[in-house]
UniProtKB/TrEMBL annotation:
<keyword id="KW-0119">Carbohydrate metabolism</keyword>
<comment type="pathway">
    <text>Carbohydrate metabolism; galactose metabolism.</text>
</comment>
<dbReference type="InterPro" id="IPR016040">
    <property type="entry name" value="NAD(P)-bd_dom"/>
</dbReference>
<feature type="region of interest" description="Disordered">
    <location>
        <begin position="271"/>
        <end position="292"/>
    </location>
</feature>
<comment type="similarity">
    <text>Belongs to the NAD(P)-dependent epimerase/dehydratase family.</text>
</comment>
<dbReference type="InterPro" id="IPR036291">
    <property type="entry name" value="NAD(P)-bd_dom_sf"/>
</dbReference>
<feature type="domain" description="NAD(P)-binding">
    <location>
        <begin position="6"/>
        <end position="316"/>
    </location>
</feature>
<dbReference type="GO" id="GO:0003978">
    <property type="term" value="F:UDP-glucose 4-epimerase activity"/>
</dbReference>
<dbReference type="InterPro" id="IPR005886">
    <property type="entry name" value="UDP_G4E"/>
</dbReference>
<dbReference type="Pfam" id="PF16363">
    <property type="entry name" value="GDP_Man_Dehyd"/>
</dbReference>
<keyword id="KW-0520">NAD</keyword>
<keyword id="KW-0299">Galactose metabolism</keyword>
<keyword id="KW-0413">Isomerase</keyword>
<dbReference type="GO" id="GO:0033499">
    <property type="term" value="P:galactose catabolic process via UDP-galactose, Leloir pathway"/>
</dbReference>
<comment type="subunit">
    <text>Homodimer.</text>
</comment>
<protein>
    <recommendedName>
        <fullName>UDP-glucose 4-epimerase</fullName>
        <ecNumber>5.1.3.2</ecNumber>
    </recommendedName>
</protein>
Protein backbone atom coordinates (compact mmCIF):
# COMPACT_ATOMS: atom_id res chain seq x y z
CA UNK A 1 0.00 0.00 0.00
CA UNK A 2 1.16 3.53 -0.85
CA UNK A 3 2.15 5.23 2.42
CA UNK A 4 3.17 8.54 0.87
CA UNK A 5 1.37 11.45 2.45
CA UNK A 6 1.59 15.14 1.68
CA UNK A 7 0.89 17.48 4.59
CA UNK A 8 0.00 20.93 3.29
CA UNK A 9 0.70 23.32 6.15
CA UNK A 10 3.13 20.87 7.79
CA UNK A 11 5.13 23.69 9.41
CA UNK A 12 2.11 24.96 11.34
CA UNK A 13 0.95 24.15 14.84
CA UNK A 14 -1.40 21.32 13.89
CA UNK A 15 0.64 20.32 10.83
CA UNK A 16 3.89 19.81 12.76
CA UNK A 17 2.17 17.43 15.18
CA UNK A 18 0.55 15.61 12.26
CA UNK A 19 3.90 15.17 10.51
CA UNK A 20 5.59 13.78 13.63
CA UNK A 21 2.80 11.28 14.24
CA UNK A 22 2.79 10.08 10.61
CA UNK A 23 6.56 9.59 10.64
CA UNK A 24 6.38 7.76 13.97
CA UNK A 25 3.84 5.40 12.39
CA UNK A 26 6.01 4.62 9.36
CA UNK A 27 4.51 6.91 6.71
CA UNK A 28 6.64 8.78 4.17
CA UNK A 29 5.89 12.43 4.61
CA UNK A 30 6.20 15.34 2.21
CA UNK A 31 5.60 18.77 3.74
CA UNK A 32 4.39 21.71 1.74
CA UNK A 33 4.31 25.13 3.41
CA UNK A 34 4.83 28.74 2.41
CA UNK A 35 6.09 29.58 5.94
CA UNK A 36 3.76 32.58 6.14
CA UNK A 37 2.65 31.52 9.62
CA UNK A 38 4.47 28.20 10.02
CA UNK A 39 8.02 27.69 11.27
CA UNK A 40 10.82 25.90 9.45
CA UNK A 41 12.12 24.59 12.76
CA UNK A 42 8.76 22.96 13.44
CA UNK A 43 9.18 20.62 10.45
CA UNK A 44 10.43 17.19 11.42
CA UNK A 45 13.88 16.52 9.92
CA UNK A 46 12.70 13.15 8.62
CA UNK A 47 10.14 14.77 6.28
CA UNK A 48 10.86 16.10 2.78
CA UNK A 49 10.07 19.81 2.59
CA UNK A 50 8.86 21.87 -0.38
CA UNK A 51 8.53 25.60 0.27
CA UNK A 52 5.71 27.10 -1.77
CA UNK A 53 2.13 28.24 -1.86
CA UNK A 54 -1.00 26.13 -2.35
CA UNK A 55 -2.40 28.83 -4.62
CA UNK A 56 0.46 28.13 -7.05
CA UNK A 57 -0.84 25.36 -9.31
CA UNK A 58 2.45 24.97 -11.24
CA UNK A 59 4.27 24.46 -7.95
CA UNK A 60 1.72 21.85 -6.82
CA UNK A 61 1.98 20.03 -10.15
CA UNK A 62 5.76 19.83 -9.75
CA UNK A 63 5.42 18.37 -6.25
CA UNK A 64 2.88 15.76 -7.36
CA UNK A 65 5.00 14.84 -10.38
CA UNK A 66 8.08 14.34 -8.17
CA UNK A 67 6.29 12.44 -5.41
CA UNK A 68 3.87 9.54 -5.71
CA UNK A 69 1.31 10.86 -3.23
CA UNK A 70 -1.68 8.80 -2.09
CA UNK A 71 -3.26 11.19 0.42
CA UNK A 72 -3.14 14.93 0.93
CA UNK A 73 -3.74 16.17 4.45
CA UNK A 74 -4.87 19.73 3.96
CA UNK A 75 -3.98 21.86 7.01
CA UNK A 76 -2.94 24.82 5.01
CA UNK A 77 -5.26 27.68 5.87
CA UNK A 78 -5.50 30.83 7.91
CA UNK A 79 -7.47 30.08 11.07
CA UNK A 80 -7.78 33.10 13.35
CA UNK A 81 -11.41 34.11 13.95
CA UNK A 82 -10.85 37.78 14.98
CA UNK A 83 -8.36 38.38 12.15
CA UNK A 84 -10.90 37.06 9.65
CA UNK A 85 -13.49 39.55 10.93
CA UNK A 86 -11.07 42.40 10.17
CA UNK A 87 -9.70 41.06 6.90
CA UNK A 88 -12.18 38.69 5.23
CA UNK A 89 -10.55 38.87 1.79
CA UNK A 90 -7.27 37.56 3.18
CA UNK A 91 -9.22 34.48 4.30
CA UNK A 92 -11.20 33.93 1.12
CA UNK A 93 -8.07 34.43 -1.00
CA UNK A 94 -5.73 32.10 0.87
CA UNK A 95 -8.22 29.48 2.00
CA UNK A 96 -10.68 29.20 -0.88
CA UNK A 97 -8.29 29.81 -3.79
CA UNK A 98 -5.79 27.47 -2.11
CA UNK A 99 -8.40 24.71 -2.01
CA UNK A 100 -9.39 25.24 -5.66
CA UNK A 101 -5.79 25.05 -6.89
CA UNK A 102 -4.99 22.07 -4.70
CA UNK A 103 -7.99 20.12 -5.98
CA UNK A 104 -7.23 21.07 -9.60
CA UNK A 105 -3.72 19.76 -9.21
CA UNK A 106 -4.83 16.60 -7.36
CA UNK A 107 -7.33 15.80 -10.14
CA UNK A 108 -4.79 16.50 -12.91
CA UNK A 109 -2.17 14.33 -11.19
CA UNK A 110 -4.54 11.51 -10.15
CA UNK A 111 -4.04 11.91 -6.39
CA UNK A 112 -7.04 10.02 -4.98
CA UNK A 113 -7.55 11.06 -1.33
CA UNK A 114 -7.78 14.21 0.74
CA UNK A 115 -8.29 14.65 4.49
CA UNK A 116 -9.29 18.22 5.16
CA UNK A 117 -9.01 20.29 8.35
CA UNK A 118 -12.41 21.84 8.70
CA UNK A 119 -13.75 23.50 11.81
CA UNK A 120 -16.47 23.92 14.40
CA UNK A 121 -16.63 27.51 13.15
CA UNK A 122 -18.66 26.25 10.16
CA UNK A 123 -21.58 25.74 12.58
CA UNK A 124 -21.86 29.40 13.54
CA UNK A 125 -23.68 30.08 16.81
CA UNK A 126 -25.84 26.99 17.43
CA UNK A 127 -28.89 27.63 19.58
CA UNK A 128 -29.34 25.88 22.92
CA UNK A 129 -26.64 23.97 24.72
CA UNK A 130 -26.79 20.79 22.67
CA UNK A 131 -23.63 19.11 21.47
CA UNK A 132 -23.11 19.63 17.75
CA UNK A 133 -23.57 16.63 15.47
CA UNK A 134 -22.77 16.34 11.78
CA UNK A 135 -26.48 16.88 11.06
CA UNK A 136 -26.55 20.35 12.60
CA UNK A 137 -27.02 23.26 10.18
CA UNK A 138 -23.84 25.05 9.13
CA UNK A 139 -24.34 28.83 9.33
CA UNK A 140 -20.97 30.48 10.01
CA UNK A 141 -20.85 33.81 11.87
CA UNK A 142 -17.31 34.74 10.86
CA UNK A 143 -15.40 34.81 7.54
CA UNK A 144 -12.99 32.13 8.72
CA UNK A 145 -15.85 29.67 9.29
CA UNK A 146 -17.44 30.73 6.01
CA UNK A 147 -14.20 30.12 4.10
CA UNK A 148 -13.94 26.60 5.53
CA UNK A 149 -17.58 25.85 4.73
CA UNK A 150 -17.01 26.96 1.14
CA UNK A 151 -13.93 24.72 1.02
CA UNK A 152 -15.97 21.76 2.29
CA UNK A 153 -18.60 22.37 -0.39
CA UNK A 154 -16.06 22.72 -3.18
CA UNK A 155 -14.46 19.45 -2.13
CA UNK A 156 -17.83 17.69 -2.08
CA UNK A 157 -18.76 18.73 -5.64
CA UNK A 158 -15.30 17.99 -7.00
CA UNK A 159 -15.38 14.53 -5.46
CA UNK A 160 -18.73 13.82 -7.16
CA UNK A 161 -17.33 14.74 -10.55
CA UNK A 162 -13.91 13.09 -10.28
CA UNK A 163 -12.08 10.09 -8.88
CA UNK A 164 -11.36 11.86 -5.62
CA UNK A 165 -12.42 10.93 -2.08
CA UNK A 166 -12.42 13.12 0.97
CA UNK A 167 -12.89 13.21 4.69
CA UNK A 168 -13.61 16.59 6.30
CA UNK A 169 -12.64 16.70 9.97
CA UNK A 170 -14.28 19.54 11.85
CA UNK A 171 -12.02 20.31 14.75
CA UNK A 172 -13.24 22.06 17.80
CA UNK A 173 -10.49 23.91 19.76
CA UNK A 174 -7.15 22.29 18.93
CA UNK A 175 -4.84 22.69 21.91
CA UNK A 176 -1.98 21.27 23.96
CA UNK A 177 1.38 20.10 22.64
CA UNK A 178 3.39 16.97 22.07
CA UNK A 179 4.65 15.59 25.42
CA UNK A 180 8.25 15.77 24.07
CA UNK A 181 8.07 19.56 24.43
CA UNK A 182 9.84 19.85 21.05
CA UNK A 183 6.90 21.22 19.11
CA UNK A 184 4.00 23.41 20.19
CA UNK A 185 1.83 26.41 19.49
CA UNK A 186 3.60 29.61 18.38
CA UNK A 187 1.57 32.26 16.56
CA UNK A 188 2.56 35.89 15.98
CA UNK A 189 0.60 37.62 17.30
CA UNK A 190 -0.86 34.97 19.59
CA UNK A 191 -4.66 35.17 19.87
CA UNK A 192 -5.58 31.73 21.25
CA UNK A 193 -6.73 31.39 24.82
CA UNK A 194 -4.51 28.61 26.19
CA UNK A 195 -1.16 29.96 24.91
CA UNK A 196 -2.14 33.42 26.17
CA UNK A 197 -2.93 31.94 29.59
CA UNK A 198 0.48 30.19 29.48
CA UNK A 199 2.23 33.49 28.64
CA UNK A 200 0.50 35.04 31.65
CA UNK A 201 1.50 32.14 33.92
CA UNK A 202 5.10 32.45 32.70
CA UNK A 203 5.17 36.18 33.42
CA UNK A 204 5.44 37.28 29.78
CA UNK A 205 2.28 39.33 30.22
CA UNK A 206 0.84 40.86 33.38
CA UNK A 207 -2.68 39.64 32.79
CA UNK A 208 -5.03 38.24 30.21
CA UNK A 209 -8.37 39.61 29.14
CA UNK A 210 -11.57 37.61 29.31
CA UNK A 211 -13.57 38.68 26.28
CA UNK A 212 -17.18 39.01 27.45
CA UNK A 213 -18.89 37.77 30.63
CA UNK A 214 -22.50 38.16 29.52
CA UNK A 215 -22.83 35.27 27.08
CA UNK A 216 -25.65 32.77 27.35
CA UNK A 217 -23.52 30.24 29.28
CA UNK A 218 -23.41 29.13 32.96
CA UNK A 219 -20.72 31.64 34.05
CA UNK A 220 -21.26 34.12 31.21
CA UNK A 221 -17.93 33.39 29.44
CA UNK A 222 -17.66 31.47 26.16
CA UNK A 223 -17.70 27.70 26.31
CA UNK A 224 -15.40 25.73 24.00
CA UNK A 225 -14.47 22.09 23.49
CA UNK A 226 -10.68 21.75 23.79
CA UNK A 227 -9.20 18.74 22.04
CA UNK A 228 -5.57 17.64 22.23
CA UNK A 229 -3.58 18.06 19.06
CA UNK A 230 -2.29 14.46 19.15
CA UNK A 231 -5.84 13.13 19.40
CA UNK A 232 -6.58 15.15 16.25
CA UNK A 233 -3.52 13.71 14.53
CA UNK A 234 -4.75 10.18 15.37
CA UNK A 235 -8.11 10.95 13.77
CA UNK A 236 -6.38 11.89 10.49
CA UNK A 237 -4.53 8.60 10.34
CA UNK A 238 -7.81 6.75 10.92
CA UNK A 239 -9.50 8.88 8.24
CA UNK A 240 -6.73 7.95 5.78
CA UNK A 241 -7.21 4.28 6.55
CA UNK A 242 -10.97 4.72 6.12
CA UNK A 243 -10.47 6.18 2.64
CA UNK A 244 -7.92 3.52 1.70
CA UNK A 245 -10.45 0.85 2.64
CA UNK A 246 -12.73 2.34 -0.02
CA UNK A 247 -15.38 3.92 2.20
CA UNK A 248 -17.45 6.88 1.03
CA UNK A 249 -16.47 10.51 1.44
CA UNK A 250 -17.81 11.95 4.68
CA UNK A 251 -17.49 14.57 7.44
CA UNK A 252 -16.83 14.13 11.17
CA UNK A 253 -16.89 16.42 14.21
CA UNK A 254 -13.81 16.08 16.41
CA UNK A 255 -13.96 17.22 20.01
CA UNK A 256 -13.74 15.89 23.54
CA UNK A 257 -17.52 16.30 23.89
CA UNK A 258 -16.90 18.40 27.03
CA UNK A 259 -17.24 22.16 27.24
CA UNK A 260 -15.08 24.47 29.35
CA UNK A 261 -15.69 28.17 29.88
CA UNK A 262 -12.91 30.73 29.57
CA UNK A 263 -12.97 31.09 33.38
CA UNK A 264 -12.69 27.32 33.83
CA UNK A 265 -9.64 27.24 31.56
CA UNK A 266 -8.00 29.96 33.63
CA UNK A 267 -8.80 28.07 36.87
CA UNK A 268 -7.47 24.77 35.49
CA UNK A 269 -4.31 26.55 34.38
CA UNK A 270 -3.81 28.01 37.88
CA UNK A 271 -4.04 24.45 39.23
CA UNK A 272 -1.67 22.92 36.70
CA UNK A 273 0.98 25.65 36.70
CA UNK A 274 0.74 26.69 40.36
CA UNK A 275 0.85 30.35 39.19
CA UNK A 276 -1.71 33.02 40.14
CA UNK A 277 -2.63 34.08 36.52
CA UNK A 278 -4.31 37.48 36.62
CA UNK A 279 -7.44 37.67 34.42
CA UNK A 280 -9.46 40.86 33.80
CA UNK A 281 -12.91 41.27 32.30
CA UNK A 282 -12.94 42.87 28.84
CA UNK A 283 -15.56 43.58 26.15
CA UNK A 284 -16.77 40.85 23.80
CA UNK A 285 -14.56 39.94 20.82
CA UNK A 286 -16.47 40.13 17.50
CA UNK A 287 -17.30 36.82 15.85
CA UNK A 288 -17.37 34.63 19.00
CA UNK A 289 -20.28 32.17 19.34
CA UNK A 290 -21.58 31.47 22.91
CA UNK A 291 -20.87 27.74 23.03
CA UNK A 292 -19.24 25.18 20.74
CA UNK A 293 -19.14 21.58 21.97
CA UNK A 294 -18.85 18.54 19.72
CA UNK A 295 -20.81 15.37 19.58
CA UNK A 296 -18.08 13.03 18.29
CA UNK A 297 -20.12 9.82 18.40
CA UNK A 298 -19.86 9.39 14.64
CA UNK A 299 -16.05 9.64 14.54
CA UNK A 300 -15.82 7.15 17.40
CA UNK A 301 -18.21 4.72 15.72
CA UNK A 302 -17.17 4.97 12.09
CA UNK A 303 -13.45 5.82 12.34
CA UNK A 304 -12.92 3.99 15.67
CA UNK A 305 -11.40 7.16 17.06
CA UNK A 306 -10.51 7.12 20.77
CA UNK A 307 -9.37 10.51 22.09
CA UNK A 308 -7.01 9.97 25.02
CA UNK A 309 -6.26 13.38 26.50
CA UNK A 310 -8.35 15.42 28.94
CA UNK A 311 -8.21 19.11 29.80
CA UNK A 312 -5.47 18.63 32.43
CA UNK A 313 -3.21 16.87 29.90
CA UNK A 314 -3.90 19.69 27.44
CA UNK A 315 -2.87 22.43 29.84
CA UNK A 316 0.03 20.35 31.20
CA UNK A 317 1.54 19.74 27.76
CA UNK A 318 0.99 23.39 26.75
CA UNK A 319 2.82 24.42 29.94
CA UNK A 320 5.64 21.93 29.28
CA UNK A 321 6.14 23.49 25.82
CA UNK A 322 6.09 27.00 27.35
CA UNK A 323 8.68 26.06 30.01
CA UNK A 324 10.95 24.33 27.49
CA UNK A 325 10.61 26.99 24.76
CA UNK A 326 9.36 30.23 26.31
CA UNK A 327 9.98 32.16 23.07
CA UNK A 328 8.53 29.43 20.86
CA UNK A 329 10.61 28.75 17.75
CA UNK A 330 12.34 32.13 17.84
CA UNK A 331 15.15 31.08 20.16
CA UNK A 332 14.92 27.41 19.39
N1 LIG B 1 -10.40 34.37 24.72
C1 LIG B 1 -10.31 35.27 25.77
N2 LIG B 1 -9.15 35.96 25.92
C2 LIG B 1 -8.07 35.81 25.09
C3 LIG B 1 -8.18 34.89 24.02
C4 LIG B 1 -9.37 34.20 23.87
O1 LIG B 1 -11.25 35.45 26.54
O2 LIG B 1 -7.06 36.49 25.27
C5 LIG B 1 -11.65 33.61 24.54
C6 LIG B 1 -12.32 33.84 23.20
O3 LIG B 1 -13.14 34.98 23.25
C7 LIG B 1 -13.07 32.54 23.03
C8 LIG B 1 -12.19 31.49 23.72
O4 LIG B 1 -11.32 32.24 24.57
O5 LIG B 1 -14.28 32.60 23.70
C9 LIG B 1 -11.37 30.67 22.78
O6 LIG B 1 -10.73 31.56 21.87
P1 LIG B 1 -9.56 31.11 20.88
O7 LIG B 1 -9.12 32.34 20.16
O8 LIG B 1 -8.56 30.31 21.62
O9 LIG B 1 -10.29 30.09 19.90
P2 LIG B 1 -11.62 30.25 19.02
O10 LIG B 1 -12.70 29.51 19.74
O11 LIG B 1 -11.88 31.66 18.64
O12 LIG B 1 -11.21 29.53 17.69
C10 LIG B 1 -10.52 28.28 17.68
C11 LIG B 1 -9.63 28.24 16.45
C12 LIG B 1 -10.48 28.24 15.22
C13 LIG B 1 -11.53 27.15 15.33
C14 LIG B 1 -12.32 27.24 16.60
C15 LIG B 1 -13.27 26.07 16.68
O13 LIG B 1 -8.74 29.34 16.41
O14 LIG B 1 -9.65 28.03 14.12
O15 LIG B 1 -11.44 27.24 17.69
O16 LIG B 1 -14.03 26.07 17.85
F1 LIG B 1 -12.38 27.25 14.31
Amino acid sequence: QNKNVLVAGGAGYIGSHMVKKLLDEGYHVVVLDNLSTGHKKAIDQRAKFYEGDTRDKAFLDRVFQNEDINTVIHMDAFSIVPESMKNPLKYFDNNVIGMIKLLESMVDNHVPNIVFSSTAATFGNPKGNRKITEKDPQNPINPYGESKLIMEKIMKWVSKANHLHYVALRYFNASGADASGKIGEDHHPETHLIPIVMQTAYGQRKNLQIFGDDYDTPDGTNVRDYIHINDLADAHILAMKYLNEGHKSDSFNLGSSKGFSVKQIVDTSRDVTGKPIQANDAPRRPGDPDTLVADSTKAKKVLHWKPKYGIHDIVKTAWNWKEKHPEGYQKY
